[in-house]
Amino acid sequence: MNLKKSTKNLLLDFLFDLIGSICYAIGIYTFARAADFAPGGVSGLALIINYLWKFPIGITSLILNIPLILISYRVVGKQFLRKSARTMLLCTFFLDIVFPYTPSYTGSPFMAALYSGVFLGIGLGLFYMRGTSSGGADFLIMTIKRLHPHLSLGAVTMVLDLLVILLGWPVFQHVDAVLYGLITTFITSLAIDKIMYGTSAGALAVIITDNGLEIAEKISEITDRGSTAIRAMGTYTRQERDVLLCACSKVQTHTILNAVHEIDPNAFIMMTETREVYGEGFIEKNE
Questions:
Q1: Domain boundary, last residue among 197, 224, 240
Q2: Are both 11 and 97 inside the same structural domain?
Q3: Are residues 147 and 174 in the same domain?
Q4: Are residues 211 and 280 in the same domain?
Q5: Among 37, 42, 240, 282, who pairs with 180 as Cys (CB 3.0-4.6 Å)?
């Protein structure tokens, strides 16, 4: 059983690496490089170096990764670095060997910035989901995430990328390079957070009502979810009421609100958004 699970995980890791590397290379080579702007991070530095001296983007990124690996290896761990090494090699393969022979985007630079952000965000999000990275600034990002787990990966990425984006101003010699880089970074951040948290995001419904059992049965009927019922007393009125706790997905919040108000229009309802919901039960019900 353990061997089967291990093999499945390895195949999933490779699949996510493969798809993520293709998306990453599309974002960098097909769109950002074609529009002459740096999207940020080590890949952005590699693009700037490529623009100035025509060095291969993938190999340059690998070389720039070396000092960052030395800085972060104690925090991110050997396993993370081993997995990232495979990811970096795949990214290098697609950046330097495959995509130089594919057509580049020749349309609006603004649209190139948008598409670059989408593909980079998808690629990085897939890497992060499997505990790996494309290297470079990702090592610093994951280090910061380990030390401060409450921080958003997308927000941390945006802050670190700003320095590289500003460097692109004197190199590409037009302010639009900064604007396009900012657009790409913003879209990348949104895409990362959507991929990282979108599938597991949910809400906790806190319902205070006089019809707890009836509402719980209705929620179970329409959403296939259970509720936790607590009999509580208000300290001001000294009146006992039912308190229901129900973990649900975001798409179910509106359905639950309508169901509660149909039964008890005077019910108090609070929806608390949660970025991550853990537990096999929630995942299976949400699929």
A1: 197
A2: yes
A3: yes
A4: yes
A5: 37
Domain tally, the chain: 2
Q: Does 135 share its domain with 220? A: no
**Range of 112's domain?**
2-197
Mean pLDDT, to the nearest integer, of 144-154? Answer: 71
What tens digit of pLDDT does each residue of 198-208 get?
Answer: 655 567 888 88
**Do 154 and 174 form a contact (C-beta atoms < 8 A)?**
no
Position 25: which residue type? A
**pLDDT value of position 50:** 94
The rounded percent of the chain whose pLDDT value lies above 90 is 40
On whether both 241 and 115 belong to a single domain, the answer is no
Structure-block tokens of residue 222 = 């329409």
pLDDT the model gives residue 280: 45
